[in-house]
C-alpha cells in the first residue's frame, strides 16, 4: 500500500483501514457503481428486458448488502434516504454528477460539485455509516476542464486529510475530442488523474470494431496511471461469460487494479444480481478463474471469502 503524503500521520491508520476495507487487502477494487440514476436518468431502470424490481432504488442496496462487494458508490442524497436500513455496506460518495440530457453537440460537459468533503465527513460522523471514500467525474478535453481540475484536486487533498480514499471517473469528452475511446488519449487522461492525486482512476478499456477488447494495448493506460490504480468501466449489460472474460483479461493481462460495475449487476433480478456481483468479486478480489467465477454466478460454486 502506497500512502499518499497528503494523508497526515494521524490519519494514516484511517486511510489504511479504508483502503483494506475496499480492496480486501488485495490492492484491487471491486466497486458496485450506483450513480446512474443521475447520470443516465431512468434509462437503466425501466424498459424492455429490464426486470420490474430494478425500478425500485432500494434494489441497489439489497444487492450491496447481500453480495460480497468492495464498495458501493452513490450520491449522498440517495444514501441519506436508504442508509439507515443498510448500515453495514462500505460506501463511497460521489461529490458531483450530471445528467446525459445536454450532449457535447450543444455544450461541453461540466459536472459541478454538489457537496464538499467536509459535508461528507460531517454526514459520516452523525450517521456512523461506513463511508470509506469520495469520488468525482472528470471530463478531460471539455472547455471547463480547468474548473473541474480545481474541484477534483481540492476534493482529493481534503479527502486524504481525513484518511478517505479517492476515485476519479475519467472521460475524454468535449467538442475538441474526436474519439473519446482512443487509447493513447485515455493514457493521457490517466496521467492527468495521477497528477491530481487520485487513488483509483475509473476509465474505459475500449474494444475494436469487431467487439474484441484491446487488452494488450490497454497496458499503456495502466502504465500511465503509475501508482494510481486503474479500474475499468463495466459498461452496458453483456453476456456473463464475455463480461467475466473481459474483466479477467483487464486484470491479469493489462494489469488493471479492478472494476466499477453497475448495469451488468443491477439490471438483473435480485438473486441473479447478487450472484453476478459475487462472480465479479471472485475474479477481482480473490483470483478465481473465469470458469470458477462463472460457476459462482450459476450457483454451482460458493464464493470463499478470504480474510
What's the layout of helices and strands?
Layout: H1 12-23, E1 29-33, H2 36-39, H3 58-66, E2 71-75, H4 76-82, E3 91-94, H5 117-127, E4 131-140, H6 145-161, E5 165-172, H7 183-196, E6 200-203, H8 219-224, E7 229-233, H9 240-252, E8 258-261, H10 263-266, H11 270-284, H12 290-297
Parallel strand pairs: 1-2, 1-8, 2-3, 3-4, 4-5, 5-6, 6-7, 7-8
Helix pairs in contact: 3-11, 9-11, 9-12, 11-12
Q: Could you walk me through the main structural features you see in this protein, from its secondary elements to its overall organization?
A:
By secondary structure, the protein is α/β, with parallel strands linked by helices. It has twelve helices and eight strands. α3 packs across α11, α9 packs parallel to α11 and α9 runs antiparallel to α12.
Amino acid at each position: 500500500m502506497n500512502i499518499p503524503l497528503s494523508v497526515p500521520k494521524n490519519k494514516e491508520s484511517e486511510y489504511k483501514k479504508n483502503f483494506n476495507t475496499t480492496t480486501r487487502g488485495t490492492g484491487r477494487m471491486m466497486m458496485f457503481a450506483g450513480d446512474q440514476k443521475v447520470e443516465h436518468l431512468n434509462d437503466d431502470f425501466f424498459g424492455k428486458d429490464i426486470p420490474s424490481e430494478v425500478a425500485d432504488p432500494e434494489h441497489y442496496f439489497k444487492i450491496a448488502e447481500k453480495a460480497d462487494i468492495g464498495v458501493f458508490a452513490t450520491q449522498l442524497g440517495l444514501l441519506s434516504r436508504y442508509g439507515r436500513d443498510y448500515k453495514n455496506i462500505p460506501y463511497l460518495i460521489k461529490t458531483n454528477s450530471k445528467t446525459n440530457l445536454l450532449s457535447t453537440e450543444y455544450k461541453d460537459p461540466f459536472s459541478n460539485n454538489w457537496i464538499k468533503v467536509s459535508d461528507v465527513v460531517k454526514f459520516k460522523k452523525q450517521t456512523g455509516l461506513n463511508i470509506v471514500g469520495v469520488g468525482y467525474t472528470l471530463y478531460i478535453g471539455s472547455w471547463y476542464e480547468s474548473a473541474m481540475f480545481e474541484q477534483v484536486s481540492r476534493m482529493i487533498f481534503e479527502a486524504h486529510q481525513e484518511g478517505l480514499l479517492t476515485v476519479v471517473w475519467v472521460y475524454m469528452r468535449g467538442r475538441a475530442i474526436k474519439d473519446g475511446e482512443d487509447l493513447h488519449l485515455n493514457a493521457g487522461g490517466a496521467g492527468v488523474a495521477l497528477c491530481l492525486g487520485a487513488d483509483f482512476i475509473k476509465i474505459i478499456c475500449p474494444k475494436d470494431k469487431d467487439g474484441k477488447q484491446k487488452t494488450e494495448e490497454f497496458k499503456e493506460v495502466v502504465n500511465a496511471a503509475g501508482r494510481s490504480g486503474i479500474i475499468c468501466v463495466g459498461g452496458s449489460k453483456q453476456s456473463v461469460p464475455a463480461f467475466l472474460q473481459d474483466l479477467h483479461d483487464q486484470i491479469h493481462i493489462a494489469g488493471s487494479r479492478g472494476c466499477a460495475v453497475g448495469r451488468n449487476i443491477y439490471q438483473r433480478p435480485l438473486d441473479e444480481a447478487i450472484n453476478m456481483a459475487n462472480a465479479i468479486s471472485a475474479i477481482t478480489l480473490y483470483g478465481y478463474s473465469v470458469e470458477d467465477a462463472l460457476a459462482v454466478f450459476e450457483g454451482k460454486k460458493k464464493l470463499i471469502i478470504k480474510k
